[in-house]
């Protein structure tokens, strides 16, 4: 089975068909220049090409074979080339082996084209490039000029619109990325704040105490203070009376220390003592 598949593939080899990239690659292989950039790109396609004569002085007539150029128009760039060794065939010919020298390279964005004519050059047009340089060319006839100038203007409009959308999409992408990063930063900051609060022992419960709780706490505090004060005064009074009895040798007295919780004074009551006559002798 595998041998049969191999024989069929060998006899009918799979090959890719020609596409716009193959056409651009073929042109790229024929252009010679030290400053030539890579032409083969997936988005790039050939629009048209035109054989023209470059005009050095629009007021001076020149030979019909002098300054022959071939302008190659892609959907985003333009090339001005010169045939090396003289004109043989078009650069777009399928069986060509000619080499072309790149004389000028320009993007279409910012390019301007203008038709003009005078008594010497009836089918001329002017190209003004984005860097400010300008070139004048003369086509073979009016139809060639009309078709080529129309292709240039349409390609310029298409390239400008694509660049506009590219910038718009890039700005949207950056805005979306900035919003996403801002959201992540806000969530991280909130998380760090919560972690920091827990480490410092910060409690986020309400700090206000209800009125009833305040009153109960006040009553308990006052009662505790009054009880403590009364107990302390009773102990001091009892201790003082005992000391007097021991020092004077007097008989025991009925001492009463009374205290009232919630009042700030204490009373001491004792029996009256009458001295005997022997005490005065």
From TrEMBL:
Transmembrane segments: none annotated. It comes from the Eukaryota. Residues 36-174 form the IQ motif and SEC7 domain. Residues 245-281 are annotated as: Disordered. Gene3D superfamilies: Pleckstrin-homology domain (PH domain)/Phosphotyrosine-binding domain (PTB). Residues 258-281 have a biased composition (Low complexity). Pfam families: IQ_SEC7_PH (PF16453). This is IQ motif and SEC7 domain-containing protein. The lineage of its organism: Eukaryota, Metazoa, Ecdysozoa, Nematoda, Chromadorea.
């Amino acid at each position: 089975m595998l041998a049969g598949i191999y024989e069929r593939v060998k006899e009918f080899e799979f090959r890719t068909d020609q596409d716009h990239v193959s056409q651009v690659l073929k042109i790229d292989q024929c252009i010679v220049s030290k400053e030539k950039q890579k032409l083969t790109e997936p988005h790039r396609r050939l629009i048209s090409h035109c054989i023209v004569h470059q005009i050095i002085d629009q007021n001076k007539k020149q030979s019909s074979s002098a300054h022959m150029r071939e302008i190659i128009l892609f959907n985003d760039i333009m090339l001005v080339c010169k045939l090396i060794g003289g004109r043989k065939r078009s650069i777009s010919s399928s069986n060509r082996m000619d080499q072309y020298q790149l004389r000028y390279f320009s993007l279409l964005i910012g390019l301007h084209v203008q038709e003009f004519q005078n008594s010497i050059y009836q089918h001329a047009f002017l190209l003004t490039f984005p860097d400010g340089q300008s070139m004048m060319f003369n086509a073979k006839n009016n139809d060639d000029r009309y078709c080529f100038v129309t292709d240039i203007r349409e390609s310029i409009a298409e390239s400008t619109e694509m660049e506009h959308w590219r910038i718009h999409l890039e700005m949207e992408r950056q805005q979306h990325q900035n919003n996403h990063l801002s959201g992540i930063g806000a969530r991280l900051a909130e998380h760090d704040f919560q972690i920091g609060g827990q480490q410092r022992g910060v409690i986020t419960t309400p700090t206000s105490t209800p009125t009833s709780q305040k009153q109960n706490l006040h009553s308990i505090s006052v009662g505790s203070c009054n009880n403590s004060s009364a107990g302390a005064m009773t102990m001091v009074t009892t201790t003082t009376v005992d000391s007097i009895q021991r020092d004077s040798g007097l008989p025991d007295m009925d001492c009463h220390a009374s205290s009232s919780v919630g009042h700030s004074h204490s009373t001491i009551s004792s029996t009256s003592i009458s001295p005997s006559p022997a005490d005065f002798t």
